[in-house]
Amino acid sequence: MSESQVIQLRQRRGWTQEKLATESGVGVRTIQRLESGSDASLETLSLVAGAFSVAVSDLFVSMDSAALTEQIESLETRSEAQQLTRDRTTAAW
Question: Is pLDDT at 53 greater than 80 in this prediction?
Fold first, then answer.
């Protein structure tokens, strides 16, 4: 995978790893692994990107795989569609 921007994004906000874990809904150890360059699931990446209010692709300096880029874009599209559905359901209540 490409070089992670998670540390830089976290530090720009003045967040600790614990704060990012809380904001994203993942464990501190997951944040530590992500920051050390370990691979993460697309769901984890989506949660972390959501905490930063950025696209998943913004978590990395560059993408080294066209297939991964397509998967990320697909995940973001599905996530947006799911959020719209949740928003409509909530508004109906």
Answer: yes
Can you give the pTM of this predicted structure?
Answer: 0.65
Q: What is the pLDDT of residue 1?
A: 40
Q: How far is CA 12 from the centre of its chain?
A: 16
- C-alpha of 14 from chain center: 18
Quickly list DSSP for 20-74.
HHHHHTS-HHHHHHHHTT----HHHHHHHHHHHTS-GGGGBS----HHHHHHHHH
Integer Cα distance of 58 and 12 in angstroms: 14
* Residue 42 near residue 70 (C-beta atoms within 8 A): no
Pair 3, 61: CB distance under 8 Å: yes
